[in-house]
Amino acid sequence: MKRKAFVAGQFYPGGRERLRETIEAMIDPAAGRTKAIAVVSPHAGYVYSGPVAGAVFSSTVLPDVFVILGPAHREIGSLFAIQAEGSWQTPLGESPIEPDLAGRILAGCPLVEENAQAHLWEHSLEVQLPFIQYFREAAAIVPLCVSHEAGYDELEALGRALAGAVRSFGKDTLIVASTDMSHYVSQKTAEHKDRMAIDKVLALDPRGLFETVVSERISMCGFQPTAAALVAALGLGAKKAELVRYATSGDASGDYSQVVGYAGIRVS
Q1: CB–CB of 261/198 below 8 Å?
Q2: What pLDDT, on the 0 to 100 scale, is given for residue 75?
Q3: Which positions ≥6 away from 64 have C-beta within 8 Å?
Q4: Hey, what domains does the chain have and what are their CATH numbers?
Q5: Please, are residues 230 and 159 in contact by the beta-carbon 8 Å criterion?
């Protein structure tokens, strides 16, 4: 199935040249690049979260294959929904699904279901794709949507399967965990709560991340895909994580009374 862009013209510009110009204003071409196993990147409208995503993608060595994990903001009918064939379109072009890697993930985790329909109206993965396409026109992707109903044990099973699939696949692959941080709280609250979650990611502690977000009621929409990505990264030999950039929507709007937080993190 060929998935057409759903939020072009809403979360990011709908025209090719305008989109390229927007991305170019949010990246640093002179940034040194660090090899990574996984990254954490936000998925709000580019005017708000684009500079954080741009900082991550422009400072990371980008391969030609990406597994994108994102939270489902709607019911998807399964815990983990993968699109295993076809392609995704944005104004910058068309990215094919990597069927071999998708098949390995499906084979490695019975909880993952092939469900392209689950991706049609979900923005959390799509918003990552123009940044990927800008730097890697020929990139192949594996999109995987994660239900908010997934518990930690299920996320750990997914992460282990991802690690095994990427390892046996044998080609350089970057795992992208798509998430925003705290939602619609004061700047002070966002910085405090987001720091608790970020510290668990930096400590490479997926269970700690899961438990902290739940116990502290942190409105981090993609903590589950982020936890699974951390499990996978650890299985692939991750030794450290670094915070590339943190911001809130208040930095763009000037309104710090009700903000959404954004964190860009690299795991290597």
Answers
A1: no
A2: 86
A3: 136, 138, 139, 140, 171, 172
A4: 2-267 (3.40.830.10)
A5: yes
